[in-house]
Amino acid sequence: MLHPASGVATFSAYAGPGIDERLVPNVRIRMSEVIAALSVALDITEGQPEGHAMRNAMIGMRIADELKLTTEDRSALFYALLLKDLGCSSNAAKMSYLFGADDHGLKRASKDIDWAKAGAKMKYVWRQCAPGGSMIEKLLRLAAVARSGPQGERQIVEIRCERGAEIARQLQFPEATAQAILALDEHWDGHGHPQQLKRNEIPLLARICCLAQTVEVFVSRFGVHDAIEMARQRRGRWFDPQLVDALEAFKDDADFWSRLHSPDLVQELARWEPADAVQMADEAGLDRVADAFAKVVDAKSPWTFQHSTRVAEISVGVSQQFGCPIEVQRDIRRAGLLHDIGKLGVSNLILDKPGKPTEDEFAQIRKHPEFSQRILQTVATFGTLADVASAHHERLDGRGYHRRMDGTTMHWVSRVLAVADVYEALSAKRPYRDGLSWERIRGIMQADAGTAFDHDCFAALIHWHEQHALTSRVDAQLQQVDRLIAELG
Question: Which residue among 84, 94, 300, 343 is the active-site one?
Fold first, then answer.
């Protein structure tokens, strides 16, 4: 409970790790291991099978070997291949709104389309507009897509590529990595996006990324033979002929292609990182990664905009009321930033629905903590952080989700995250309700203190709020909605 004199709280009924125990051990780990593990979140957002980015990286690095690229270029390429989809969440809402369809399905279906062929493009649009809807709904969506025209298509790619390049720079990767992500969807013949660059105007690393990602999609869906045949057919149109020749050079390397199906892709991928350019993930590096992936999560929907960063801020503030050591506060901030990474697996049709979600839709939403745990625990040093961050919807009475934990097993940081998450969510606007005042929120949470929320954590939240009133993010949300509407025309 909170001590009135000091304003510092102590836990009275919790038997578990103390407030001075780290969530992320201070051990040496390759940055590539962290990035590779978290790239699974990008795969999910793109509607791709888990491991897509890692397999893509292996293919791209094998092409780089055939080209005998320098260590510097290979290092920049390695991270571009892993992080090519960093901006993937930033156009999810727009695609879902425009087509009236699940963004994951839209993105997945788009990957094997030859967009230079009008017939293939029209077939994609027809199939993806309002699937399962009435003929009138489908025709209305078709009209909206037609109105957006080539400009709308270019803008969807531009949003994704520019945002991805921006985050890569924030992660302090080489500018060559950012440029490769920015030009990922440019084509050799100048008919790509967003700038319609052609031939050698396209950075070499971007050309490799473009070929590698498309080959990976075809290998995963149709097999190596069909992937090679696709590359041949698009040689000189989508792809640099020299790169297709490099791909052909190892088309019969059965050992290489079989390694794409390794049960431990993170370890398999490590073989392809340039040995003399290995980057280690220090504390500052892990902070940058957490910040970057929080931006990816919060960009998925205008309604989730800034949620992760604010939960992290509140959680740290609450932890300070307990006299939590600065090193643990750092871990708590990471947990707050990454707690909703699993929401990348939830369709924008649900996240952005104008009305209240149905029970079936709520069931889909409730899966996101499980996704968060699965993604985070693939990082070797994130075991405890994964367990803690993914328990932010658990309750003391055991009626939360997804593990049905109770007060005897909930980590104290999970209790902190639980109050921070609910407070922040209630203060924000949703498509089906307005943001609530602090007085309303306090009353709602007070009624659940002791059953859903830890009394001490709730008291610490109140104490923190009295000193640091949280600025509403409703205006920022509405600005994102307005921007989305403007982009849709």
Answer: 343
